[in-house]
Backbone:
C-alpha cells in the first residue's frame, strides 16, 4: 500500500517525480495600492537662493538637550554615592506638603523658563533670517500674511 495522495487532491508540494517549473506570478492588481508617483527629473538652471544658505541651527534641541544633560548629571551625581542617596531619601520623606507643592511649582516654573528661552531663541533666529533675506522677502511675506 502506498502513502501517495490520490491525483485529484491538492497538496502544497508536487510529487517528487514530477518536473517542477516555476509559474509566472499573476499580475497584481493596483486598485488598492496605486504605483508610487515618480516626479519627472529636470535640470533646474537657476538654483534657488535658499539652496545656498546654511542649514538652520536647531536651538530648541540644543537648549533642551543641555537641560536634560544637566538633569542627568545631577541625578547621576546623587545616585553614585550611598551617602547622597540616603540624604535624598531622608529629605524626601521629611518634606512637608506645602514644601512639596512649592518644589513642584518651582519645577513647573523652570520648565516654563526653558520653554521661554527656546521661544526667544527661535524668534531671534527668525528675525536674523529676515534681516539676511532683505526687504524684498519682507514685502512678499507681508502680502502673504495679510
Residues:
Amino acid at each position: 500500500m502506498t502513502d501517495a495522495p490520490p491525483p485529484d487532491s491538492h497538496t502544497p508540494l508536487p510529487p517528487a517525480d514530477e518536473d517542477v517549473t516555476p509559474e509566472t506570478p499573476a499580475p497584481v492588481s493596483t486598485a488598492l495600492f496605486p504605483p508610487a508617483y515618480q516626479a519627472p527629473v529636470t535640470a533646474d538652471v537657476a538654483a534657488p537662493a535658499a539652496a545656498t544658505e546654511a542649514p538652520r541651527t536647531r536651538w530648541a534641541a540644543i537648549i533642551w538637550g543641555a537641560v536634560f544633560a544637566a538633569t542627568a548629571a545631577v541625578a547621576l551625581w546623587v545616585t553614585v554615592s550611598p551617602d547622597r542617596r540616603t540624604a535624598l531619601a531622608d529629605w524626601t520623606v521629611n518634606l512637608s506638603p506645602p514644601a512639596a507643592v512649592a518644589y513642584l511649582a518651582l519645577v513647573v516654573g523652570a520648565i516654563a523658563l526653558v520653554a521661554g528661552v527656546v521661544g526667544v531663541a527661535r524668534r531671534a533666529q527668525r528675525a536674523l533670517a529676515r534681516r539676511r533675506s532683505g526687504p524684498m522677502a519682507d514685502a512678499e511675506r507681508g502680502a502673504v500674511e495679510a
The chain has a mean pLDDT of 78. Helices lie at 59-80, 82-93, 97-133, 135-145. Residues 59-145 form one domain. The radius of gyration is 34 Å.
